[in-house]
Amino acid sequence: MESTGLIDRVRNTIEHHQLLQVGETVVVGVSGGPDSLCLLHLLMRLQQAYALRLHVAHMNHCLRGAESEGDAAFVARQAAEWRLPATIESQNVAAVAATRNQSIEEAARQVRYAFLARVARSVGAHKIAVGHNADDQVETVVMHWLRGSGLAGLRGMLFATKLDSLRLEGADCDAGAEHDPPLVIRPLLDTRRTEIEQYCAALGLQPRFDRSNLDTTYYRNRLRHELIPLLETFNPRIREVILRSTKIIAADYALLRTEAAGAWAQAVVDERPQAIEFNLEKWRSLPLSLQRSVLREAIHRLRRSLRNINWVHVEDAVRVLQVANTGAAVTLPRGLEIRVGYDRFLMADREYTEPPPDLPWVQRQLQVTVPGKTALPDSDWCLDVDLRERAALDQDEIRDTGPLQAFLDYGRTGAELWLRPRRTGDRFWPQGLGEKPTTVHNFMINAKIPRAWREQVPLLASPHQVLWIPGWRIDERVKVTAETSQVLALSFAKAAEA
What is the mean pLDDT of residues 482-491? Predict the structure, then answer.
């Protein structure tokens, strides 16, 4: 291809996908091979039109000995010849892969993008240009399909991707950082490898040759040299078919993401850094596709560096949540867990303890002052107890109590009262709920008190029975009746309110 033809194509790609703005600083990842050298040369030719400030970045992965050193020297010389600033660094990728228990390919990818992120921050760049081409796109899609990817993977690489979406370990490029993460742009993504090689030859560029690209022990190289040529024997235009499919799938995925955002807003009750809580029935009301999308999004938010989510984990979660009873749990990757409650479910770290609401709690037995105020240890709550004559109380006042107020028949409660946690065998007759006592354990289950709170809910008790579970019910046997003469008026309040 003539050089003018390719530069026009790249300019159209940049304009169509809005990859560059006038006056930007752009970090260009240059390995020294044909793709990146072609990209750098094209951006230099467009430099004046866009008023670009280009900065060359090269990471030596230290995988090929002297050849790797030669690549780094070549990029440094080329940048100097073209009067471009450059940052050249080295890192032992094999050691990183061993430490992180990753493949060489994945470790190289992680190290490379983390390096590009650092360079972008250091030079104030909001764009990082890389040389991925249309053939790389085909290989990526086939690789994702073989690994069982959904639509997100089958759409392939994007022309522009936020760096934080690449899920890098140890790279300070999250959207929550001081500045928005830079965009990774791919101006050559619709250009074939043969066109790039023809451009280099026509312009007299002499890129480096990476012999490791021929090594079929690497997964991607096997796809490139063995599988895709085999597929071409079934359909000589298979690359074109795959590239066309990526555009269709990308559009479909964009629509799904819009729907998923609405589903997320509908299903999520609360989101915290360590946990996300969902309304179980609203999640169940979603179509299956959106149920999966919501769960995958939650995993991504809680584990931003997790690149691939196993299909089995998501399907197990969907299966359990669709029919689960309270107390069910699902194990997810990287220490995450789903816990099913009464009408909600929580995704969080396995060690995560759900914080209780702002209510009075007790962890040991505490004698109540009657009448008077009883402060709850390690909190600013206190229990105010007053004795009143029944005749001085209006019936509406007794009936319209708040959850942390109670009126009890003093003749039935007595003055020896305690606040304490529940005990095995505690029984309780919830006012207005049935004709006989039940266990406190069963009441808490029926009242949908989360398991994590049950050992701290204070019970007001006499030496012989539970009288009141604050926040829920009094005991039927100590309610105020027409025969009551003295009323025990109880209310919890914070110190500032008391």
Answer: 91
